[in-house]
Amino acid sequence: MLAITDTAAEAIKSLTSDAELPDGGGLRIAATDAEEGLELSLAAQADQADTVLEGEGLTVFLEPTAAEVLDDKVLDVQPFTTPEGEEELRFAIGPQA
C-alpha cells in the first residue's frame, strides 16, 4: 500500500483545506494514461472503484491502476528550483525502504 511521508501529509492537508473541499474530499491520484505518468487532482469524493486512504486528517483516493502502480511506493514532497530560480515544492514518488 502507498506510504505517505509526514511532509507529504502536511502538503495534502494544506491543499485540501485551501480548496475548501467538503468533508470526505481529498487528493486523487490517477493513472489515466500509462505513458503520461500519474495525475494528481483534488476531488470532492472518491470514484466508486477508488481505493481510499485515510488518516490523521487527510484523505487520498487512488484510481485502480494508480493503486496497483503505487502499491510499494512512498509519496513525499521535495524542494525544486525552477529555471527562474524560484523555490517550490513538488510531490515525488520513490520506493519504500
Automatic annotation (TrEMBL):
What SUPFAM superfamilies does its record include?
A: HesB-like domain
Q: Which domain of life is it from?
A: Bacteria
Give the protein's recorded name: Iron-sulfur cluster biosynthesis family protein
Q: Which organism is it from?
A: Pseudonocardia ailaonensis
